Amino acid sequence: MAPPASSPQSSLERDHSLFLLRQMLRIRRFEEKCAELYSAAKIRGFLHLYIGEEAVAAGAMQALEPDDAIVATYREHGHALVRGVSAASIMAEMYGKQEGCSRGRGGSMHIFDAATRFYGGNAIVGGGLPIAVGLALADKMQGRSRVTACFFGEGAVAEGEFHECMNLAALWKLPVLFCCENNLYAMGTALKRSESETDLCLKATSYEMPAWPVDGMDVAACEGAARRAVLAVRSGDGPCFLEFRTYRFRAHSMFDPQLYRDKQEVEEWKKRDPVVTFQRGLQERGLLSDEDLKRIEEDAGAEIAQAIDFAEAGTWEAVEDLTKFVYSERTRP
Ligand SMILES: Cc1ncc(C[n+]2csc(CCOP(=O)(O)OP(=O)(O)O)c2C)c(N)n1
Ligand SMILES: [Mg+2]
Q1: 271-329 pLDDT, tens per residue?
Q2: Cβ–ligand 1 contact at 137 (below 6 Å)
Q3: For 40, which DSSP code?
Q4: Ligand 1 center to residue 31 CA distance, Å?
Q5: Atom of ligand 1 nearest to the CA of 183
Q6: Around Cβ 98, how many Cβ atoms within 10 Å?
Q7: Is 209 a pocket residue for ligand 1 (Cβ < 6 Å)?
Q8: By alpha-carbon position, which residue is closest to atom 21 of ligand 1?
Q9: CA-to-CA distance for 275 and 219, rounded, in angstroms?
Q10: Rounded-to-integer distance, Cα 314 and Cα 333, Å
Q11: What is the C-alpha to C-alpha distance for residues 309 and 314, in angstroms, rounded to an integer?
Q12: CA angle 249, 253, 256 (to 5 degrees)
């Protein structure tokens, strides 16, 4: 029998659903603001937005504990926000200010935060995979019950290190959750133009690793799949591979005329916008009122406005300090 509308179970479900919506909306609004700030030349360098893919980070990361580690790519602002890295320190990083989470040295592609075990942000396609496997190897050798979640784009499967990492993680039964964010394109190259086998789960199963596809536009599906996989990984069964089928609504980066895909294709995917569809579903089920939505939007807006103020008020590193941390200081006897 379905629980009555006010039962503890349904109120728990409502709270959690609103929490998930809040996470996705924070990412969406943050990214939209970043695009604006980039046009205003406040943010410089590279900028890759996660708009359209929010459900993956917002859902999958619910399965992780504070002690677990995360490794991500250059499209990682959303993962950092969900993990609890402050919007202010992320924004200051993008501004290149010293108060940024990587001291303003990394920018958008190198968000890093030791306190939340967020191991970046990586500009190298596939570069996070060996880091994740190394972290998991250390945990296994030291007998810690931790999981490392490694997010990467489907473009990484063309890299040799993807295969080396799949092999070693499976062979040594390392606690890694491989989260492949398959948005169908690696810059302008469609998956089917670069891979003879486009079923990415098959690549993982060929290394004797459990793998399954997930609807990456559905935040609840992303959370459910990740919870199931993390349970297996944490129990010592070795790594799991999830292929999140998703889509980026915007260009690859801020320099991309998008000549490689039809506008019609983008519009079709936008009909499955993860934020809008989840929000609508909650409204239809009576779990989200107009007031709730207004509050969530206002909170996200206030958090981002504060982040911008923090970044604006931040300091530039002194020019004479720029070579600091490049090489270790030599101490003479
Ligand atoms: C080793 C390496 N080769 C090439 C590049 C240039 N490059 C930057 S992003 C990108 C596409 C990666 O696509 P994907 O892994 O699918 O991630 P997405 O951008 O779709 O999230 C490429 C080829 C790079 N950064 N690193
Ligand atoms: Mg891709």
Answers
A1: 999 999 999 999 999 999 999 999 999 999 999 999 999 999 999 999 999 888 888 77
A2: no
A3: T
A4: 19
A5: 20
A6: 16
A7: no
A8: 153
A9: 9
A10: 38
A11: 9
A12: 85
123 lines ligand 1 (CB under 6 A): yes
> Amino acid identity, residue 230?
V
- Give 159 Cα–ligand 2 centroid separation in angstroms: 13
Residue 281 to residue 56: CA distance in whole angstroms: 18
The string of pLDDT tens digits covering residues 87-140 is 999 999 999 999 999 999 999 999 999 999 999 999 999 999 999 999 999 999
pTM value surpassing 0.70: yes
* Ligand 1 contact, 186 CB (< 6 A): yes
CA–CA dist 314, 97 (Å, integer): 6
Angstrom distance (rounded) from CA 250 to CA 183: 11
User: Are the beta carbons of 97 and 316 closer than 8 angstroms?
Assistant: yes
Please identify which residue in the block is written with the tokens 């270790």.
Answer: 328
Cβ contact 80:90 at 8 Å = yes
Measure the CA dihedral 65/70/76/81, to 10°: 30
| DSSP structure string for 214-264 | EETT-HHHHHHHHHHHHHHIIIII--EEEEEE---SS-SSSS---TTS-HH
Phi-psi category of 175—alpha, beta or left, where left has phi over 0 and alpha has psi -120 to 50? beta
Per this entry, what is the length of the chain? 333
Q: Which residues surround ligand 2, an ion (CB under 5 A)?
A: 153-154, 183, 186
